[in-house]
Amino acid sequence: MNFNVINNSDSKNQTSHLSDSALQDNLSRAALNPKTGFVESMPDLNLSEALISKRHLIHNLNQIRSKIGPSCKIMGIVKANAYGHNVKEVSATLFSNGVRSFGVANINEAIELKQHFIEQQLENEPFEILAFASPLPEQLPFYLMHDIDLTLTNYETYSQAEAVAQAHNSCFNVHLKVDTGMGRLGVSMNDALELARLIERSPYLNLKSIYSHFASSGEDMPFSRQQSQHFKSLTREFEHSEGRKVLKHMANSGAIVSDHDTYYDMVRPGILLYGYTPSSAIKTSLNLKPVMQFQSRVTFIKWVEAGQTISYGRTWEAKKRTRIATISVGYADGYHRALSNNSFVEIHGKGFQQIGNVTMDQIMVSLGEDTSVNVGDVAVLFGWNGPKANELADRIGTIGYELLCSVSPRVKRVILED
Ligand SMILES: Cc1ncc(COP(=O)(O)O)c(C=O)c1O
């Protein structure tokens, strides 16, 4: 018996054959235990999957490296399950390719990542994990317990952190975040110098870096330059008055591709690592490759006559006799409903229009009169062989980040090692 599964990122139709032994393994794992009547261990039989190419990730990392040069460090941004790509695989790949700084959203993600590094026995090499969120007081002890770097954004957290460290006879590793115009988190420019000096003098706080974040890098260049100027003057003043250098970082992906002057000591790429610029309006000379390919399989094919409608709400009607394929993916997998009648999939390298409303678990595509597509064929939703995430995002007024992050946990991540 032949089953098609994915195992090769470069093959044109992305299919190969599951070996008989692998199939037997799946079947026996799914078999009922005769004593308990339960399935012992369920194989993942979902048809939609996200292929994750380690090769493309390393390629993108090297592209960034060649752009920023050897003296600038990289903090790999792996928050939100590495933008939906699988944080364990992504961070381990970055680690084995020399990245030692990691940025995550909050203390919870930080602890998960730390645990993973411990499991991988990587903890003997020095590395840092910075949680970007401003912590609540009850979260503070966990930074100490797990040796996670703290983002400090205000006086209140400064005092709370001092008290917690004192009580535990310990010391926080602190990155002071300054709001130069993003308006999300950070101490104001007016208060930043004073807070930086307080941290510097505290025996309970080790000031590891001062950082900031761009609001519109790669797009609004005058505003970004202004942000960078504020950051530069603040950090210069601090270094001058304290008589020491401090690690400075500000550049996200938009800044990396657009303004060399923002690199400082370290850059913090997220979306570039995953193969995209922040938006399709932001162009780059970097050769980026999508790291994720979201794809599923055709499960059903039929001919419909002129006048027949497709899916909920009957938003698509056949103009003539048309062959229709149903694909096993829907908005519960992260294929946005907003894409209804407004996207296409690629099957055997050929684009087919998605038609009718996207449903929770299935979509339909028009094959026209094409008879080459069969049940079981792979349909690429977005990725290196199909439409690009940014391209689909543009169609529905969002950004590629959101499409990547919303590929749901029900979609298995298949890691391509080559
Ligand atoms: C503080 C911080 N730095 C860096 C990044 C990476 O941004 P990008 O994915 O645009 O490179 C993010 C992501 O939003 C962030 O919040």
Bound small molecules, by name, code or SMILES, are:
pyridoxal-5'-phosphate
Share of residues in strands: 15-25%
Would you tell me the overall average pLDDT?
Answer: 93
Instruction: Please tally the β strands and state the result.
Output: 21
Which structural class matches the secondary elements?
Answer: alpha/beta
Molecular shape: globular
- Pick out the low-confidence regions: 1-18
- Count of helical segments? 12
Q: Provide the CATH architecture of the largest domain.
A: Alpha-Beta Barrel
| Helix content estimate | 25-40%
Instruction: Measure the end-to-end span.
Output: 27 Å
Structure, explained:
With 418 residues, the protein is an alpha/beta fold. It has 3 domains: 4-45, no CATH class; 54-267, Alanine racemase (TIM Barrel); 292-416, Lyase, Ornithine Decarboxylase, Chain A, domain 1, CATH 2.40.37.10. 31% of the residues lie in helices and 24% in strands. It is built from 12 helices and 21 strands. It has helices spanning 20-30, 54-68, 79-84, 87-96, 107-119, 140-146, 155-167, 189-201, 221-242, 253-258, 389-395, 400-405, and strands spanning 4-5, 16-17, 49-53, 73-77, 101-104, 128-131, 150-152, 172-179, 187-188, 205-212, 247-251, 266-267, 292-304, 309-310, 316-317, 322-327, 344-347, 350-355, 363-368, 378-382, 412-416. The strands form 4 sheets. Strands 4, 5, 6, 7, 8, 9, 10, 11 and 12 form a 9-stranded parallel β-sheet that branches. Helix 2 packs across helix 4 (87-96) and helix 8 packs parallel to helix 9. The protein is globular, with a radius of gyration of 25 Å. It starts with a strand and ends with a strand. Residues 1-18 have low confidence and may be disordered. The structure holds pyridoxal-5'-phosphate (PLP). Pyridoxal-5'-phosphate binds at residues 77, 103, 132, 213, 252-254, 268-272, 278.
